[in-house]
């Protein structure tokens, strides 16, 4: 059980990294932009040859950073749930939240990556139940 929570914590720590760095153009934003096959803007609108104007990039980076903070909270919660004496209710709530967020992310982002948190969350819920 603790191993699953540790994996979930590390998975969400990876999400934090992808959503926070590099600061001006988070890795997750770059990957999703390419996956959605957005047309690149002309050089005069996006000097770096990107998908968004500078103002759009700033707004979207802020939104993705916000998701990074939520994933940092989840990672911390999962790692805390591995500590001795912490109720399994904490782990259960964290795992249910991760499953719901993973399903939503897989549907809206149209990528398999959030599906990882669904799988890890479901496995964790199975082990809590047994």
Major sheet characteristics: none
Q: Helix fraction?
A: over 70%
- Tell me the strand percentage band: under 5%
Low-confidence stretches: none
How many β-strands, per DSSP? 0
**Given the structure, what is the number of helices?**
5
Query: What is the chain-wise order of helices and strands?
Result: HHHHH
Task: Please state the structural category.
Answer: mainly alpha
User: What is the 3D form?
Assistant: elongated
Span of the ends, CA to CA = 10 Å
Rg over alpha carbons: 17 Å
Mean pLDDT: 88
Layout: helices, strands, pairs:
Blueprint: H1 2-20, H2 27-35, H3 54-81, H4 88-109, H5 113-129
Helix pairs in contact: 1-3, 1-5, 3-4, 4-5
Walk me through what this model shows:
- With 130 residues, this protein is mainly α.
- Helix 1 runs antiparallel to helix 3, helix 3 packs antiparallel against helix 4 and helix 4 packs antiparallel against helix 5.
- The protein is elongated and about 60 Å long.
- The model has no long low-confidence stretch (mean pLDDT 88).
Q: Brief description of this entry?
A:
The protein has 130 residues and is an all-alpha fold. 73% of the residues lie in helices and 0% in strands.
Keywords:
130 residues; mainly alpha; 5 helices
